[in-house]
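Retro notes
What went well: the complex prediction finally ran end to end.
Inputs used:
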Amino acid sequence: MDAKDILGLPKNSFPAAQEKKPRPPKDSQRKPDGVSREVYALTGGMAPLMPSIEVSHLKKRPNSEKEKITWQWLSFTSSARTDNLQLYHWVRVVNGVPPTGDYSFAKYNKSVDILRYTDEEYEKHLIDPMWTKEETDQLFDLCERFDLRFIVIADRFPSSRSVEELKSRYYSVNRALLIARAPSPSDVSGHPLVKEPYNMVHEIERKRALSAVLSQTKQQERRDAEILAEAKRIMESRMASKSAEDAEMPVNPTGNETEKATAPAESVSPSTNIHPSSSTAAPATATTESASTPASLRMLRVYLRTHVLDQMVQAASSTAGLRTIKRVDQTLQDLGVHVKPKVPTKAVCAEHLELRKEILTLLNLQKQLQNKEAEASANRDSSYAEAPSTPKRSYRADVDRPFVPDSVGFGGERAAKRDHKRKAPGRFIDAPPSPPQSKRPRKLKASD
Amino acid sequence: MPPTSPKKHGGEQQPDTNSGQKSQRSKAARVSDDAADKKTRRLKDAEISFPIVYGTISFWLGKKASEFNSHKWTVYVRSATNEDLSVIIKRAVFQLHPSFNNPTRVVESAPFELSESGWGEFEIAITLFFHNDVCDKQLDLYHQLKLYPEDDNGPQSTKKPVVVETYDEIVFSEPTEAFFLRVQNHPAAFVPRLPAGLNLPLPGPIEHVNEKKRGDTKDHPLSQWFMNFSEADELLKLAAARQQVQAHIVKLRRQLSMIDGLPQQSKTASGQ
């Protein structure tokens, strides 16, 4: 509706009218010419996008008057045959002229070119203690006959030799022949057979290993995978410990924590850089940015100061909860300091970190104090007046913000005068405050 | 020769026996061996930093503005002291919004900046590639292009641009000796402290306390809009804040110790 408004179209579409509209065009489509209605229904009721058969073509007969075609039963020969056998087949004769040329399938009769040696060559280069000339001859014949299909050749070979043996003999003969026939050794040194001769032992071993892998049971497969993963892990940890051998690595947060940083884009790259070393995170205390740069930083080679600052901040506050971090940020703001320094030089960053640590200490102390006081006042008489409707939250918030940016200046001492959205009279630590609700357990009853 | 033994390459002090290992040069004189040593040996516990400023300046086109071309803006990376950054940067790649033609723009020489015109605000990714002897890794920066001023009141001015700049420092830790020697005296660099054992002439007395722009010395047409980044200001504020916090901590500690001394009084009433 709104779209129509924007487009300025009239809003007069009644549902009935909408239904009726698509129907008539569909109806007209159902009357195509030439083909019956049911046939069209097969294609889903609509005309096909591409005409599959030109209707006009179905009527005429192609090539009616051009040539005179007959089919004759004629004999033929094939160059692929060596015995001049004459076979017969149907031939398409055009205008009385039979087709010329070789049998059309003769071109597929390919075979491997096998080097053959003369006896002389055999005497000179190819003598082998394990093979007689006769056997070698037989081998080569079979190779030619069977196109180097060694499995078949091995099967047909008169004396029983393994496939590897046959291959070995064949390839070594070939290699020797190549080298012998080559005009100079350098000519033929590029030939793959010369460069890497067939190694029978290796081949046997390889095939054995392959069949072993193939026949592994599922259990064995699983075990192998486990072992490999374990080995990988050990390798990685070894490498990581080698690179992190310098002491005092800060507690490297996992990827999750780093991503919580305010500028995720910025911290992603340093976190990915740090990740390899974090696997062996030796939980050491966070270092100060002095001469001993942490090993993780050193690995970085180049980094932006702000990246590093973010990480240090994360490391420093890793023990604190999210709420505490927020409180720290709030305190920083109250003090008039940028949560992220605007001019992050080395000195500024160092100071910033120190400040953050001190604020953490401060907050911890505050908490301790709160707890102590709660304990203390819980031991007082229960007749002590309850806090004048002090909701928990407002009290907490009060203590949370000791440095309210007021013209009054530092200190919550003046907090009483403030009128932030809190019901309770803001009171700070000076006056013994009413105990926070949560810290007032059943002890009140204990007073007799 | 410095006695440092960094992780990657052992401190090979005898060029003759080890020259064969540095395959890139011929077994020439001792001088070239030395040079190669410097290229691979890294100075532990040393770092060089380059304060930079990166950001955008955008002008409203005023009368010439059309619907799809309302602002003319420039994104750049400059040295905080307006020195020449090509001493370390080989090229800068600015990745713009895909609606731009050839959104990947490469700038091969200083000043590393790019001017364009458009109508929309988006995040520009800047990738800095350093020279080979500086660092193999690239560095990524991100900046949100801002065309419209904060206060959305009425007409924009073609004379006053919207400037957003971010200060940061590129830090190279454990630089190679060759690189270090090359740049340690360059005005764009800041060397906090010489690495131990390296007897080199101290760099000139460039105290980078005030990263103020020196528009007159560096004649960039936009230099009048460059922002000032004063480290001193920030340091002052931080110091003040720390003082406050420390005072507060002292106070709290006192209170805590007071309370710790008190518990006996309150317990008597409840008659445990």
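What we learned: Residues 346-378 of chain A form the longest helix (33 residues).
What to try next: split runs per interface for comparison.
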